[in-house]
Amino acid sequence: MLLRAINAPLTAIRGIGPALVPKFARLGIQNIAGLLCHYPRDWEDRSKTVPIADFRRGQVCTEVTVVARDWIGYGRMKTLKVFVEDESARAALVCFNRPWLEKQLVQGGRFRLWGRFYYKYGEIQSSAFEIEPLTEGQSSGDGNRVLPVYSLTAGLTNAMLRRFVSRALDQFAVGLENELPGSIIARDNLLSKAAAIKAIHFPASDAELELAKKTLIYEELFYLEIMVGKRALERKGVQTSVPTTHYPLPTIHSPLQQRLIERLPFSLTKGQQEAIAEINGDMGDTRNGYAMARLLQGDVGSGKTLVAFLTMLRAVGASSPDGGQAALMAPTELLARQHAENAARLLEPLGMRIAFLTGNIKAAGRKDLLRHLASGEIDIVVGTHALFSRDVEYKNLRLVVVDEQHRFGVTQRSLIMAKGDAPHLLMMSATPIPRTLALTVFGDMDVSVIRDMPPGRKPVKTHLARESGERRVYDFVRGKLESGSQAYFVYPLIENGDEMDLKDAVSMAERLANEVFPQFSVALIHSKLDEEEKRRTMDRFRKGEITVLAATSVVEVGVDVPNANCMVIEHAERFGLSALHQLRGRVGRGQEQAFCFLVYSDELTEDGKARLRVMLENTDGFVIAEEDLKLRGPGQIAGIEQSGYLSLGIADPIRDVETLAKARTDAFFILENDRSLLLADNRIIARVLEEAAPFGEVAL
Ligand code: ADP
Ligand code: MG
Questions:
Q1: Closest protein CA for atom 26 of ligand 1
Q2: Residue 464 pairs with which residues in a beta bridge?
Q3: CB distance 415 to 300 below 8 Å
Q4: pLDDT digits (tens, 9 = 90+) for 517-553
Q5: Ligand 1 and 302: CB distance under 6 A
Q6: Ligand 1 contact, 415 CB (< 6 A)
Q7: Counting CB atoms within 10 angstroms of each CB, which of 261, 328, 398, 418 has the fewest?
Q8: Atom 14, ligand 1: residue with shortest CA distance
């Protein structure tokens, strides 16, 4: 992974001249270390023959004779076509852009041939093949080996990369220093660094290849966790296990917190109480002054907002001698406004001075607001990403709460954090963090989980319905509306351009109003409407003046209207499972039984239906998120790609999650117990620990 020792230029290798350097750069290869760490994307076992006739089984690997040649096309587009034969069949090699093949592939010549073939124009063809001359009576050196297959770019072929990597290995990789502690290599029977690097490119056997992979994957994940652990220890300034802390109940609430709790018409759930206890533990002055960095996970509707409010009460005003301020950031204006209204209702009576700040607050109002924020006349500010606009200054920002944190990028989180002097951070998420992320991106945060729901909630009844059966869904919903309920209808698009079969929010709002529910008031909401209109619509929906809301996924996050207990999601197959779960979480917030209908296209495949069925069988957001992750594959997880620090070459934190957990245990053990010993013993870890974290943006 690191190979820090080898930063020699590429041109130190025979055969690489300055002209090739920019080509390597396109592959992200800057020096010898980069070349050696350009691990193969696949390996080809060239010891097994696959004759041409078996081309459908995969890669052909055989010995052929050139039997005929032909030219196709004219002028500059002229392309050589070479016919070859092995014992099983004849095939055509189309030599696009490889003029040099004309000299090589002469009539009667014997070659070893590899490539993928397909059936076209009545012949077996390939344009992506490789050849190697066969000298009579002997097979070629490479012919019996497992060979690397690399990601390529124009001007670099597999043959070139194999040659250069092989030279780099000979020149530089002998006697390479181990980067893993010797004790771990011995314990797990891993390869030395030098052996692993060599074997990952040119393994002597399948078994050796597996061992090389195991070694290098472990090494990458070990260093990842060393970095995560380092951050965690720095933040806490103490050597403790991470994630940590279970504070005993009951906790002492601050006076302001106590007053809010007393004013509530209900009591806190056990999960909320525990979260507050943990948060108070973090923010209490008995701890040694480090900033809280806590992730609060709780399924939709578990009551995270209230925990956020109680947290803010701990940070502001009287609780903090220097008049601390708290900021609550939400991903949409709609949600921010809802929070601001709730904050006004619940916190203003306690004397909190609250402000609402979004990009839409203009001119004079904004100027006053900013002045009050800077002078400390505002205790709590609620808003969107406008909270970290350049001109926003805080007198003393002590706490940042990020709601629906997965909607924000790492950079945005750092920008808001930078507005204070190491403020406390509380991130909230209804999308459960998969184990992988909990170990990596969020690996240095403490986690609180609210597992219970406020009492009296009944699980939402979920049904699948074909589009052609939508009439029955409409009839059912009409019945509910008649008995006083409200409903959301959600569409994947605001407005439909060309896709004829797709319902969209704008035209369906009209149809629902005129044809389906003419006796009820129907309104439309989506992200393109101006904020004032959105606000008015949401207000009227909340007050019950609007019965049916035709919407896009703007209502996905956070919106809380307890009397709305029907949710119809049309073209449900177009939404991710986690999005469906979020949308479904908009209903079932009151005492009435709630319903959710997932309406899917009549043409939906069995796989597609199976995916939607996950929603019928699960109410647990965590399970749904895991399923979603499995279906969407690794690259997709929010956080990983944007964090930019998982520059992993061979490890895949999802596939390798077990190894990741093990590497984490090792790394944290070393950091906590074994540090001095290890630092004396392993110069590379020592150096890594001294360096500034290469992924500073993860400073959460
Ligand atoms: P989420 O965790 O999805 O953000 P909210 O904070 O929006 O959930 O809370 C959902 C609803 O539950 C709100 O209407 C809130 O007032 C209510 N609520 C929160 N805590 C409790 C509680 N302990 N008992 C009853 N209702 C609660
Ligand atoms: Mg919420």
A1: 454
A2: 598
A3: no
A4: 999 999 999 988 888 888 889 889 999 999 999 999 8
A5: yes
A6: no
A7: 418
A8: 560
Tokens 């092989």 identify what position?
A: 166
CB 298 less than 6 A from any atom of ligand 1 = yes
DSSP secondary structure, 315-355, as one string? HSBTTSTT-BEEEEE-SSHHHHHHHHHHHHHHHGGGT--EE
Residues, the chain: 700
Alpha-carbon span 673 to 53, nearest angstrom:
61
Q: State pLDDT tens for residues 581-636.
A: 889 988 987 778 999 999 999 989 988 898 899 999 888 877 787 777 666 654 44
Mean pLDDT of the chain: 83
Q: How far is CA 324 from the centre of its chain?
A: 33
pLDDT of residue 251: 61
Q: Looking at ligand 1, which atom is closest to the CA of residue 562?
A: 14
β-pairing, 129-133 with 293-298? unpaired
How far away, in angstroms, is 301 Cα from ligand 2 center? 7
Q: Whose CA is nearest to atom 12 of ligand 1?
A: 303
Q: Which atom of ligand 1 is nearest to the CA of 305?
A: 6
**587 C-alpha to center of ligand 1: Å?**
12
Least confident of 270-279, 371-380, 455-464, 671-680: 671-680
271 touches ligand 1 (CB under 6 Å): no
Structure tokens that stand for 527 in this block = 């992200």
643-682: b (≥16 Cβ within 10 Å) or e: bebbebebbbbbebbebbebbbebbbebbeeebeebeeeb
Return phi, psi of residue 221, to 5°: -70, -35
- Mean pLDDT calculated for residue range 111-131: 88
- 100 secondary structure, DSSP code: T
Q: How far is the CA of 332 from the centre of ligand 2 (A)?
A: 12
Measured in Å, how far apart are the chain's first and last C-alpha atoms? 25
Spatial CA neighbour of 447 closest among 274, 310, 234: 274
Count how many Cα atoms sit within 13 Å of the Cα of residue 238 in the half-sphere of its side chain.
9
Q: Is residue 560 lining ligand 1, measured as CB closer than 6 Å?
A: yes
Site to substitute for ligand 1 among 261, 266, 346, most atoms within 8 A of C-beta: 266
Give the helix ranges, DSSP H, for 63-192: 101-104, 158-172, 182-187
Per-residue pLDDT reduced to its tens digit, 444-496: 788 888 988 888 778 899 999 999 999 999 999 999 999 999 999 999 989 88
Report the side by side order of strands in the sheet with 110-115: 118-120, 123-126, 90-94, 79-85, 60-72, 110-115, 129-133
Residue 265 burial by Cβ neighbours in a 10 Å radius (0-12, 13-18, 19+)? exposed
Nearest to 443 by CA among 675, 631, 228, 158: 228
Q: Which atom of ligand 1 is nearest to the CA of 267?
A: 23
CB 49 within 8 A of CB 112: no
Find out whether the beta carbon of 454 lies less than 6 Å from any atom of ligand 1: yes
pLDDT at site 699:
29
| CB 301 less than 6 A from any atom of ligand 1 | yes
- Measured from the Cα of 266, ligand 1's closest atom is 24
For residue 84, pLDDT beyond 90: yes
Q: Is the CB of 300 under 6 A from ligand 1?
A: yes
Distance 301 CA to ligand 1 centre (A): 5
Taking CA atoms only, the protein residue closest to ligand 1 atom 13 is 303
The closest alpha carbon to 412, from 300, 491, 331, belongs to 331
Average pLDDT over residues 65-80: 86
Q: How many CA atoms lie within 13 A of 369 on its CB side?
A: 21
Structure tokens at 4: 């820090």
Nearest-atom index, ligand 1, CA of 403? 4
Question: Cis before residue 51, ω within 30 degrees of 0?
Answer: no
Cis check for the bond before 248: say yes or no (omega within 30 of 0).
Answer: no
